[in-house]
């Protein structure tokens, strides 16, 4: 997953400043807030976040069973099918309810993707639209093309063939968009919505791989005042799982929002002098629910571990792959700790290893430790990579029963956390260059 900011942040400011009005929120009897958001064109505070997926042929047999077979595919060469799921909780739940997923598989998938079983009470028991169906192919002239099932009817006879651009193709973003239908279940009913998607062939070292990137040039926002202060709250229409939001001062901005402004469900935020927990998003982010906390700011930061800046980091514990010994984050208190979540299928993660190895060897281990949290897709691959890059810091395999890291809400790779000696998170999503700058200042 990559970020392209460029002109997109200008779109944010222009789109918002040129015509939006202050939004109202509803304060419930229990002091929780219900905030409604408005959709506008442009990329949100993360810039252009593109999501890369592999073709259906790369999926497991069980995964393939969960997707429909598209009807009336035109006679084209080298046809490949892709399914981009934008609502994983509903997707898994409805396939379990229909019998396509066993209870065991359903529970394992919810656990692997850190989804909450309690949230199923707000999902539809009937099947609804949860994914985007696309095919790529070559036309009679040998040019790459694609089709998207825009109305989600499983039939391509009413859809159009379009050229498949590469992600280095420069154009007016509006020329590249396709309009599609998505759905959400809230207020006890299914609500359809029309959204824009940009579908491209990824660049870089991807020759021979069946991959597509999806990005969504729309976001939702709300402007409101609380406790005498003005705020701007944004979410992507379709983005990372869990629907993170960004809370910013309501001021003109021409740069990407800092990662520390991102708030995931079950994390905390401050409005005026009051403190809230972000409970959930409803309707693909069209409505956000915040629950007021009774704790003051000092007590909140002390009492509630949360994977966000200023809070105690949630516990991590498991077995170090290198020596087989138990390791925990709490045992490392008293020194800085860099937690690096990576995957064996994440090219940018692996590309950063040489620089991280160089950094690790340059600092006093009494002052800082690195801990790798590896998502292993092929058995033995983590150990192979550790040996190949001569990585000496402790590494845990994250997707095993013996590794505990609840509360980190990792939805993309690489993701990282820098934790201070007192156990509180100070920085998020640093890569080697930024990490060096921060550590040189902290450890001088």
**Beta fraction of the residues?**
25-35%
**Strand arrangement, largest sheet?**
1-5-12-11-10
Mean pLDDT across all residues, rounded?
A: 85
Helix count, per DSSP? 9
Low-confidence stretches: 1-21
Q: What structural class do you assign from the helix and strand content?
A: alpha+beta
What is the terminal-to-terminal distance? Answer: 33 Å
Question: Count of DSSP E strands?
Answer: 26
Largest sheet: 5 strands, antiparallel
User: Nearest-angstrom radius of gyration?
Assistant: 22 Å
**Helical amount among residues, as a percent range?**
10-25%
Task: Give a verbal description of the structure.
The protein is an alpha+beta fold and 444 residues long. Among the domains are: 2-48 and 218-303, no CATH class; 317-442, Glutaredoxin. 17% of the residues lie in helices and 34% in strands. The chain is built from 9 helices and 26 strands. The protein has a 5-stranded antiparallel beta sheet, with no helix packed on it. β20 and β21 form a beta hairpin. α3 packs antiparallel against α4. The protein is globular. The model is unreliable at 1-21 (pLDDT under 50).
Topology:
Layout: E1 2-4, H1 8-17, E2 25-27, E3 33-36, E4 38-41, E5 48-54, H2 61-65, E6 77-85, H3 88-97, H4 103-112, E7 131-138, E8 144-148, E9 162-163, E10 177-186, E11 189-200, E12 211-215, E13 218-226, E14 229-236, E15 245-249, E16 262-263, E17 268-271, E18 274-282, E19 287-292, H5 297-303, E20 317-319, E21 326-328, E22 336-343, H6 347-351, H7 353-362, E23 368-375, H8 381-388, E24 395-397, E25 415-419, E26 425-428, H9 432-442
Parallel strand pairs: 22-23, 23-24
Antiparallel strand pairs: 1-5, 2-3, 3-19, 4-13, 5-12, 6-7, 7-8, 8-9, 10-11, 11-12, 13-14, 14-15, 15-16, 17-18, 18-19, 20-21, 22-25, 25-26
Helix pairs in contact: 3-4
